[in-house]
């Protein structure tokens, strides 16, 4: 039971569970394969065991690629690094009403240790890295991953090297360097950073690049979003997921998570309609989807949604396949729509998201406006990051009053309902 | 069972559970009184019921001042507003080691919906406000409360008026206005803002000022920190709490929470040694404590720890009493020590805190350096807010490298272990 081997997604060649990520034969990406024997025999028992697990992703340890998962703990929190996952699923009635939809839920993954879903993938990659004997973490990042890797290094007592585009949001730079990591800013975009890290991972074999040589393990962390959403809905799938697409990894792994549990009979329903969301300033996957192609043409990103600014998305084709298989779509929204999306979500739910969440919310609005979402659909909007990390996007987006510290100044400056209706 | 009345902390006069906060007879502050009959009869049963509750503060609903607490839900998350509480308690072995201490835990309350402990107090105040028929929330805030009230208003569909000093950190202003609140910046400090709100609460009786007319309910929310810490330690009290002091409310209510559960036999141990933490730039409570006085002389705040910048702390005397009763202290640390505290916590635990958490961490270091903490003490450090909200404090606090996107540039610029040891 548990992870058994790595397997090429293209030619199915099998490899040992080591720090490798690409097939020697066909250069396809490697994925983790599992033996789930027994987990589906008594679904109720498996569900009960999950529910009795810790309040973090390790409650799903049976479905994650570790030889010996960190020991479960009933504690809220954990001494096994930062506790990722078990983020809130909020019923967003006021958002649904505003968009004319029946039922909308917000999966708020900003509610993670470093405020993005990247804590999930880093938790899995770092745990596997330790099993394999690594003592240094590294990554190529658009920002959120930088935060998560630097924090995980500090929490686990591992060294870290974090590579980012030099033009990243200041918030994400400060919330990385503070952890005492080796922070390397690259004069270039994310695709340049990624290429460099690919080269460096060959030269520094003692480093666990979470999204290069550890990528198969890293990517599995995203499945926990599907598990959690199902569990929070009473072990049922929702009808539709709206999720951002950068490399396409998160999007496809959410699909994989639902499928695994459906195959084992742990949840009821079907794989949800998968609706992908990109920014028009970096939409290679949406463009290919719109043109009926499967191969994504690389682009040079130019968008405020920097955490999604991957011009050459590794898992783009698989994301397109998943959208097509589930009757979904992949849309793109403008920077102005992203800013409006952030505001719409904040005003109707109390969740302040970064630009990536603005992309997802704006895409939900676009789907609603197009009439693509049936009234009886249960929709889950995946919010992957926090508004405090992309403040440029909201500066000047609202009014405020400035007054002296006396009632007269208040009364003459700030309209109140009584006055408005008077 | 449950909350029975409001009671003057000074003269014990009783009042109904309405929106009142000050005694008509002696002008003392009102507190919520409870009838806990039955809750201590079978402690094991009460503990089990708590553990079976939702993953937020409503698992402690029996100890909170609501007529009908929001219905418990097993879901992670909640449809009853934003899910506050159940934040991680992290074992901080590397921090303990750095300070020469035996056992240190970090209660990370930045892991709340708007990233501070204020979500707890607002959740309780807003729930009670709805019971009492209010449809507008308001507050006087040093920043974190502004975020929490504006978000709660958006989540619950209530109007809100938020009053802040105009010189607040930009991060906290943006993370308030985005929710569509009425944001009022006051040319003055927090004490001016507070005084104005006190006046306005008389003129706008249909507004629930969470920390003015709703203050008795609001303050009770802080008790949940004590409940959670106990529960997370296996229904035992820690030996010492290090907590920040602004108004003194959080500090004293943590003490009240432990005492309530000890009285009922729900937890083992004693009320912990309570160590308070202030910034030297605003330390009226630490100063009074140091001088052996009980009454705090108001000061004009001047510190980077703006969330603690209350020059005239309402609950200062009670905080001093608690520190004295438990054998604790109340210390103050400089702005430089605060910056170092932020860095120390981040580097050793992976938790990035705002200036208030820097105050607490620096105070823990000061107590350790003074040799005041016994080797066998179990210490809990209360981290109340998030580093992303006070970025000025960390700018320029670390080194980084900037390179071109090629291996040669990396090799010539970034030192790596192999080179260092060569």
Automatic annotation (TrEMBL), chains A, B:
<dbReference type="InterPro" id="IPR050147">
    <property type="entry name" value="Ser/Thr_Dehydratase"/>
</dbReference>
<comment type="similarity">
    <text>Belongs to the threonine synthase family.</text>
</comment>
<protein>
    <recommendedName>
        <fullName>Threonine synthase</fullName>
        <ecNumber>4.2.3.1</ecNumber>
    </recommendedName>
</protein>
<dbReference type="Pfam" id="PF00291">
    <property type="entry name" value="PALP"/>
</dbReference>
<dbReference type="InterPro" id="IPR001926">
    <property type="entry name" value="TrpB-like_PALP"/>
</dbReference>
<dbReference type="GO" id="GO:0004795">
    <property type="term" value="F:threonine synthase activity"/>
</dbReference>
<keyword id="KW-0456">Lyase</keyword>
<feature type="domain" description="Tryptophan synthase beta chain-like PALP">
    <location>
        <begin position="84"/>
        <end position="385"/>
    </location>
</feature>
<dbReference type="InterPro" id="IPR036052">
    <property type="entry name" value="TrpB-like_PALP_sf"/>
</dbReference>
<dbReference type="InterPro" id="IPR004450">
    <property type="entry name" value="Thr_synthase-like"/>
</dbReference>
<keyword id="KW-0663">Pyridoxal phosphate</keyword>
